[in-house]
Amino acid sequence: MKKAIWIVGPALSLFAAGAFAQSVDVAAAEGLMKKSGCFKCHSVTAKKDGPSYHSVAEKYKGKADAEAKLTTHITTGPTVKIDGKEERHEILKSKDAAEIKNVVAFILSR
Ligand code: HEC
Predict the structure, then answer these.
(1) CA-to-CA distance for 45 and 27, rounded, in angstroms?
(2) Distance, CA 18 to ligand 1 centroid (Å)?
(3) In this predicted model, what pLDDT tens digit does every residue of 12-70 receive, in sequence order?
(4) CA–centroid distance, residue 1 to ligand 1 (Å)
(5) Looking at residue 75, what is its pLDDT?
(6) How many other C-beta atoms can be found within 10 angstroms of the C-beta atom of residue 27?
């Protein structure tokens, strides 16, 4: 019976990871992003001053560091070029790690 345990263990953890990946609280993510002014320059599907979240998700698809990169981007405010002018990128109006993670998961799943 030892064998069965080896098979069930990994299967369960895969299932747990899958369930986690899908658990984005869309309303919470959109609410926080609205409050932070993110939709002034971004939409999910259309390019505005910033890239669409869909194209960001495409760019980072399958990249192991996607979550870390996006978290840094939306919490530290790196300099970005907007209409040829350098500006600090907006940061999320939250210091709550779970809320930030939820927004990153929201973007990556568009
Ligand atoms: C004043 C306009 C503006 C606002 C407001 C803004 N962004 Fe951006 N954002 C940009 C631009 C321009 C880029 C492209 C930067 C680049 O590619 O160098 C960008 C890039 C991004 C990226 C992609 C980063 C990458 O590594 O490819 C993400 C994710 C993002 N923004 C999320 C957000 C979030 C979340 C907010 C709200 C907290 C926000 N943005 C607010 C203009 C804006």
Answers:
(1) 17
(2) 27
(3) 555 555 545 558 999 999 999 999 999 999 999 999 999 999 999 999 999 999 999 99
(4) 53
(5) 98
(6) 8
Q: Which amino acid is at 38?
A: C
CA 84 from centre of chain: 26
Q: CA 57 from chain center: how many Å?
A: 8
> Atom 26, ligand 1: which residue's CA is nearest?
70
Contact 58, 99 (CB under 8 A): no
pLDDT above 70 for 11: no
The stretch 81-103 carries a mean pLDDT of 96
Place of tokens 């870390």: 68
pLDDT given for residue 12 in this prediction = 56
Given a contact cutoff of 8 angstroms between Cβ atoms, the answer to whether 11 and 63 are in contact is no
